[in-house]
Design brief:
Number of helices: 11
Strand order of the largest sheet: 19-20-21-23-22-24-25-26-27
Strand content: 25-35%
Shape: globular
Number of domains: 3
CATH superfamily of the largest domain: Alpha/Beta hydrolase fold, catalytic domain
CATH architecture of the largest domain: 3-Layer(aba) Sandwich
Structural class: alpha+beta
Largest sheet: 9 strands, mixed
Radius of gyration: 26 Å
Distance between the termini: 82 Å
Length: 578
């Protein structure tokens, strides 16, 4: 027999199997906006649904500006020819790229996986790559398998935004894991500057792998810190611990890339850690008239008649809460709106002001704090239902009047938050001695600003993954929104970088932080590339009041369900509630 022909035939067969494994999913999926649990069922008829490409945001495909719920569906025939390899390597993997913001994924009507949180406990996970394992017994072999993906988008881009979108048989690499083995679960290291990075390498296959492990460490400024290489052997179905020392580390945030390279296998893994984050220094660089600038803004706000309008919305009321649409006038006589939730049981209650993320919309459904709070969800100018008088859009919001500190949009937005506190203090149901402000991302920055500029009435504050901080650093490491400012400076000769940073220094929360008097709870994600932990701590470390933080080592620009519960427990405890 011709050995070359046999070898060629085997390669051909292997390629055929791999092709089928890689090419099972179509490029376009059935798609529909809205929400209905029936859409998860395999028997549901989706013939009248439109088709869009998976791996690209729905805004790019005729759904521009749509935020909220939507579903994707597709049907996949899985050949039993793949079953043997699937058994050998532990099943299949469904990869859906990054989904903005949260998803629940079903296979044949059964829950396959979930990432992020849905209202009323919304938590974005847009930076997380989705990988959902499928066991062999869950597959309908030689039959159609229906995949349904429920998505919630809280603002900005939405849907299955990036590739890879694929269904594959697990490979050798999928059975080989590299992970940090810090004893500190949050990956925050304290103490001596000579540290150890411990690794755990696990091999789930009955094969021994020999190769070299390369570990590369860089700072959050992308400066090289350390590169080390060792030869190693990972036994059959074994775990190996390896440690890498680093000397004289400075306070900051670090990214680690680990790669195992052998004859049979290549595998790479990334993770991050922090070293002494409370010693990260980003000095206040406020302009000489900084305090006067904000005192003038507050006096201008006081001169504006608020003209509160409170409109009951019967369709939104629940057994425990009465819901109102609120309208009021803010700085510059700008009309802003929000949603007020009051417990139906008469009494005086502590109040929570919820401030929103960039480009997102606050709705009544977001006010899910329980029956023992009055809550107010504000839409600052240019957001949600507060676009009547100011509406620069996105992109464009961050650059609106950035050449003029007196007209810059965040001067007004910060005053909108102060006006929201004015409104809460006007309500008979509110215990004005117990007012809390909280929010994430831009809402985290608004939380800092509200607690600083209204530091007598705010009693506690909970900023999460805060934005609008330490701009000189931020533009060095963040692609967005730095690219928007680059375009502005290139097109407008009057918008020099000096002028941009001058205006931004007035709204930089690290400069506002020393004014805060309320106790603070902050959370940060070590994998956050939108609001990197450095800018979170640049502001946090300038706060003089009592404070504490929570760091999530495996989260990007998102807030976990665990923190949402921890946050409410913290608020209740500090307010003296049961």
């Amino acid at each position: 027999m011709n050995i070359k022909l046999v070898f060629g035939f085997l390669i051909s067969c292997m390629s055929f199997i791999n092709l089928n494994a890689q090419g099972l999913l179509p490029e376009k999926w059935k798609f529909k906006t809205g929400d209905n649990v029936e859409w998860a069922k395999p028997s549901f008829n989706d013939n009248d649904w439109k088709e869009i490409a998976a791996g690209s945001a729905w805004e790019n495909q005729s759904y521009d500006g749509y935020d909220g719920y939507a579903w994707y569906r597709t049907s996949v025939f899985i050949s039993s020819k793949l079953k043997e390899d699937a058994k050998k390597y532990g099943g299949l993997i469904l990869r859906l790229g990054r989904i903005d913001d949260a998803d629940i994924t079903y296979l044949n009507g059964e829950l396959l996986g979930k990432t992020g949180g849905f209202p009323p406990y919304f938590a974005s996970a847009h930076s997380t790559l989705r990988e959902y394992p499928i066991s062999v017994d869950k597959v309908l072999w030689n039959q159609p398998n229906v995949i349904a993906v429920r998505v919630y988008d809280g603002g900005g881009q939405g849907g299955m935004c990036t590739k890879p979108v694929e269904l594959t048989v697990k490979s050798i690499a999928d059975n080989f894991t590299i992970a940090p083995a810090f004893k500190e679960q949050n990956h925050v290291l304290l103490g001596a500057s000579d540290i150890i990075i411990p690794l755990s390498i696990k091999n789930n296959l009955a094969t021994t792998f020999k190769g070299k492990v390369t570990i590369n460490v860089i700072s959050d400024f992308k400066e090289p810190i350390s590169t080390q290489i060792i030869e190693t052997e990972i036994g059959k179905k074994a775990e190996k611990k390896i440690s890498f020392p680093i000397k004289n580390l400075k306070p900051g945030f670090y990214k680690v890339t680990v790669r195992f390279e052998g004859k049979l296998l290549s595998k790479e893994s990334d993770f991050s850690f922090a070293y002494e984050p409370e010693k990260v220094v980003s000095a206040v660089d406020a302009q000489p008239d900084f305090l006067n600038y904000w005192e003038r803004a507050k006096k201008e706000l006081e001169a504006v008649e608020p003209q509160y309008k409170v409109i009951k919305k019967d369709s939104l009321c629940t057994k425990g809460h009465t819901i109102f649409l609120v309208e009021m006038r803010s700085l510059g006589n700008v009309l802003v709106r929000g949603w007020l939730s009051i417990p139906t049981k008469a009494g005086k209650y502590p109040a929570i002001l919820r401030v929103q993320g960039y480009s997102s919309t606050t709705t009544a459904q977001d006010l899910n704090y329980g029956d023992d709070f009055v809550s107010f969800g504000l839409n600052i100018r240019g957001h949600g239902n507060s676009k009547d008088d100011v509406n620069p859009g996105f992109p464009g919001y961050l650059q609106n009047f950035v050449k003029d500190k007196e007209l810059y949009i965040y001067r007004g937005a910060y005053m909108d938050c102060v006006r929201a506190i004015d409104f809460l203090c006007s309500r008979a149901e509110v215990d004005t001695s117990r007012i809390v402000v909280e929010g994430g991302s831009q809402g985290g920055a608004l939380t800092f600003a509200t607690a600083a500029l209204d530091n007598k009435r705010i009693k506690f504050c909970v900023p999460q993954i805060p934005f609008l901080s330490d701009f000189l650093y931020y533009f060095k490491v963040a692609i967005w929104p730095g690219n928007e400012f680059v375009n502005l400076v290139e097109k407008d000769k009057k918008a020099t970088w000096e002028n941009v940073f001058y205006t931004l220094s007035y709204i930089d929360i690290k400069n506002l932080a020393p004014m805060i008097k309320a106790p603070m709870l902050m959370c940060s994600g070590l994998l956050d590339d939108v609001c990197p932990p450095h800018i979170n701590f640049a502001a946090y470390n300038n706060v003089k009041s009592k404070k504490e933080y929570v760091v999530f080592p495996n989260l990007g620009h998102a807030v976990s369900d665990d923190f949402n519960q921890f946050k409410m427990d913290w608020i209740r405890k500090n307010l003296g509630m049961k």
